[in-house]
Amino acid sequence: MSEGAAARSEFTVLDWLGFGVAALAEVFNVAFPFAIAPSFGKMFADFGSTLPALTQAAMSVWFPLALATIAFVPFALSLDGSRPIGVRRALVLGGAALGGGSAALLLIAMYAPIFRLAENIK
User: Fold this and answer.
1) Cα–Cα dist 27/29, whole Å
2) Is the whole-model pTM more than 0.90?
3) In this structure, are residues 93 and 18 in contact, taking their beta carbons and an 8 Å threshold?
4) Distance (Å, rounded) from C-alpha 61 to C-alpha 73?
5) Do the beta carbons of residue 71 and residue 95 sit within 8 Å?
6) Cβ-proximal residues to 32 (8 Å cutoff; 6+ apart), any chain
7) Domain chopping of the chain, boundaries
8) What is the pLDDT along the chain (122 residues), one digit of tens a residue?
């Protein structure tokens, strides 16, 4: 492979920066059930009503870890050097979107009971 082709097949600093930012979302998703959900669980215990299904799932250990696993797959596939660089970059972008989206979904799940409570206040 020529030098130019080898340079075009490797990640640039911008690619690795995107990979790193998306990895932070993955760390959030993995840490969520152990660091963030318990503090919300204490607060929700005082509500006395049934929590929304999404909140119940987010409070479990399996749901955030499943989201993290799903978002991690494109990153793992992007490290395969035999794929064209365009495909690898698309996988990084897809993994970043999945990681950020799953982190946002977990946060929305935690605030859903608060939104429901606010709707009942007149």
Assistant:
1) 5
2) no
3) yes
4) 19
5) yes
6) 58, 64, 103, 106
7) 3-120
8) 555 555 456 888 888 887 888 888 889 999 999 998 888 888 888 877 788 999 999 999 999 999 999 989 998 898 888 889 899 989 988 988 999 999 999 999 999 988 888 887 86
Residue 24 is encoded by which pair of tokens? 């932070």
Rounded Cα–Cα distance for residues 88 and 95 (Å):
10
Spatial distance between the Cα atoms of 1 and 80, rounded to a whole number of angstroms: 17
Cα distance between residue 3 and residue 30, in whole Å? 39
- Residue 122 has which token pair? 């007149």
Residue type, 74: P
